[in-house]
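quick q for whoever's on today - can somebody do inverse folding on this one?? i tried earlier but teh output was garbage lol. C-alpha cells:
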C-alpha cells in the first residue's frame, strides 16, 4: 500500500511538470491580449464594409485558439490565431473564388492589413511577425447540413468544402467538461480520517485548462518534436490529434476509473487508434476520421492518397506511448531533465526543471524538503517513511 501511494505521488508530480511545461509552450497572457484586440479590430473592419454581403458577416474564432489547445511552434514565439468570416447572405450560387475575393479585397483596402497580407488556399493570412499570424477563412451556410455546418472555399480544388467550426468547438468543450473518476481521491480521503496516515493528502493539481486540453497540448508538442528531425510533412495534422484524443477521452472517462491524471493521459493516448476507421473500397483500404458535426468532411482524407501519412501517425503514436513509459521509469533530476528535453524540447523543459530546482532549494532552506522512496526529493512532504534533507546552498549535496 505504501509503495502504491508513493507511485501515485510520483505520477502527480510528473503530471504537474507536464502542466507547467504546457504553460511555457502556449501563448502568454500578453500575447493572448494582443491577439484578442487584433481579432476584434479585423472583425470590425470586415463588418463595417459598405459591401452588402460583408456588412452582415459574423466573425468568430476556430481551431486551437477557440479550443484552448494552442502550442507555439518549436523555437518560435509565434502562434496561430484562426478565425472565420461567415457571410450568411451568400449561397452556393456564389463561387468559392468570389467569396474569397470579397474578403481579400476588403482587407487590401486597409493599408495596415495590406502590408502584411498573404493569400493561402483556404484563407487570408495577416502576418504579425514574431508574435502571431491571423488566418481569416471565409465561409457560407451549408444548407445541406442539419447541424448548422458551413462551406469554405478551396482554391486548389476550386470547390466548396464542408466544415462546422462552431459545432466542432462546442462538441470538444462538452467532452472537456467531463471529469475522470479518480480512485485515489477516495483512498486519500479515507486516509485523512486516520490518525496514523502514512502520507498527506494528494496534492491539488492546477486545472485551468482541464485535463483534455492539456492532453492535446502535450501530444501536439511531442508530435512537433518527434517530426522536427523527420519529414515534417508527414506529421499528423492537429485536428486529427485533437479529434482522436477527444473521442478517446470521452470513452475512457465514461468507462474507467483512474489513479492519477497521468494515468488518464496514458490511457487516452493508448486508445486513440481504436477510433480510426478503415474501409475496403474497390479492393483498397480507405481511412476515415469523420467530422461528426457535419457530413462530407474526412480529417484523414489525405491518408487515402498519401499512405505514408497513416504510417507516420502510427509511428508517432508508438513513440509517444514509449516516451510516457520511460518518463515514469526515469529516476533522478538529470535523467528527468534529459527525458523531458528529448520529448518536448530543450528550452521549455529546461525552464520547468530549473523552476523545480528553485522550488526544492527554497523548500530545503525552510526545512520542508524530504526524500521519499520511489519519489526522490519532494516538497510534497509525506508524513512518515521519509528522510529529511539538511539545509545547504547546493541542490543535491549532502
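ok took a stab at it. sequence:
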Amino acid at each position: 500500500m505504501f509503495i502504491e501511494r508513493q507511485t501515485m505521488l510520483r505520477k502527480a508530480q510528473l503530471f504537474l511538470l507536464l502542466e507547467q511545461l504546457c504553460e511555457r509552450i502556449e501563448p502568454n497572457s500578453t500575447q493572448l491580449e494582443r491577439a484578442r484586440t487584433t481579432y476584434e479590430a479585423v472583425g470590425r473592419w470586415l463588418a463595417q464594409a459598405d459591401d452588402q454581403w460583408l456588412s452582415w458577416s459574423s466573425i468568430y474564432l476556430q481551431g486551437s485558439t477557440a479550443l484552448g489547445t494552442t502550442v507555439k511552434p518549436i523555437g518560435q514565439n509565434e502562434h496561430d490565431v484562426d478565425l472565420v468570416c461567415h457571410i450568411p447572405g451568400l449561397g452556393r450560387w456564389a463561387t468559392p473564388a468570389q467569396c474569397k475575393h470579397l474578403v481579400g479585397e476588403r482587407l487590401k483596402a486597409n493599408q495596415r492589413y495590406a502590408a502584411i497580407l498573404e493569400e493561402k488556399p483556404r484563407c487570408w493570412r495577416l502576418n504579425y511577425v514574431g508574435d502571431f499570424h491571423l488566418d481569416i477563412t471565409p465561409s457560407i451556410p451549408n444548407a445541406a447540413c442539419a447541424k448548422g455546418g458551413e462551406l469554405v472555399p478551396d482554391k486548389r480544388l476550386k470547390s466548396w468544402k464542408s466544415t462546422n467550426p462552431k459545432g466542432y468547438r462546442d462538441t470538444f468543450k462538452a467532452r472537456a467538461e467531463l471529469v475522470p473518476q479518480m480512485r485515489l481521491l477516495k483512498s486519500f480521503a479515507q486516509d485523512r480520517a486516520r490518525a496514523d496516515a502514512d502520507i498527506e493528502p494528494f496534492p491539488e493539481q492546477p486545472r485551468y485548462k482541464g485535463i483534455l486540453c492539456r492532453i492535446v497540448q502535450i501530444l501536439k508538442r511531442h508530435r512537433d518534436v518527434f517530426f522536427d528531425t523527420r519529414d515534417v510533412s508527414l506529421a499528423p495534422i492537429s485536428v486529427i490529434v485533437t479529434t482522436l484524443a477527444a473521442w478517446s477521452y470521452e470513452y475512457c472517462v465514461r468507462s474507467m476509473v483512474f489513479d492519477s491524471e497521468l494515468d488518464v493521459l496514458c490511457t487516452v493516448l493508448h486508445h486513440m487508434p481504436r477510433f480510426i476507421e478503415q474501409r475496403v473500397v474497390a479492393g483498397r483500404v480507405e481511412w476515415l476520421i469523420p467530422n461528426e458535426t457535419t457530413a462530407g468532411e474526412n480529417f484523414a482524407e489525405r491518408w487515402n492518397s498519401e499512405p505514408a501519412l497513416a504510417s507516420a501517425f502510427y509511428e508517432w503514436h508508438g513513440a509517444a506511448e514509449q516516451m510516457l513509459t520511460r518518463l515514469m521509469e526515469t529516476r533522478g533530476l538529470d535523467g528527468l531533465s534529459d527525458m523531458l528535453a528529448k520529448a518536448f524540447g530543450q528550452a521549455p523543459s529546461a525552464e520547468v526543471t530549473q523552476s523545480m530546482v528553485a522550488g526544492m532549494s527554497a523548500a530545503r532552506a525552510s526545512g520542508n524538503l524530504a526524500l521519499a522512496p520511489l519519489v526522490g526529493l519532494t516538497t510534497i512532504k509525506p508524513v512518515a517513511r521519509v528522510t529529511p534533507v539538511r539545509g545547504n546552498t547546493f541542490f543535491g549535496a549532502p
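fwiw Residues 215 and 386 are 32 Å apart (CA to CA). also The chain has two domains: 2-25+173-364, 29-165. so keep that in mind when u check it
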